[in-house]
Design goal:
2 domains, mainly alpha, 102 residues, 0% strand
């Protein structure tokens, strides 16, 4: 908090540097098979704003993210179709709930 109060511009630069490093690591792991999604806290949006590589390769507008949000990937289909969660989605959903409430 001291840096934010004393030098807001430097604080912002360090946050943006951190976001770019995190996305670089996430992309490298995802390219090797890791599954990633945004919890919906604007992580990908803020990473995109600072120039991190988060845009979907099939979207020339740059408006679509490379990774889905939690709601899109796990809850979206259930909420839209009323269907049950797949085994993968159910497992991921339980892991998320466990991590949130343990």
């Amino acid at each position: 908090m001291q840096l934010l109060a004393s030098d807001g511009q430097l604080f912002r630069q360090r946050v943006q540097d951190s976001l770019r490093r995190q996305i670089k690591a996430i992309n490298a792991l995802a390219d090797r098979g890791m599954f990633f999604w945004d919890y919906g806290n604007a992580f990908l949006l803020e990473a995109q704003r600072c120039g991190a590589d988060v845009s979907a390769s099939d979207d020339p507008t740059g408006l679509k993210f490379r990774y889905p949000s939690y709601v899109q990937d796990i809850m979206g289909y259930v909420l839209i179709s009323g269907s049950k969660l797949s085994t993968r989605s159910r497992t991921l959903h339980h892991l998320v709930l466990f991590s949130l409430f343990s």
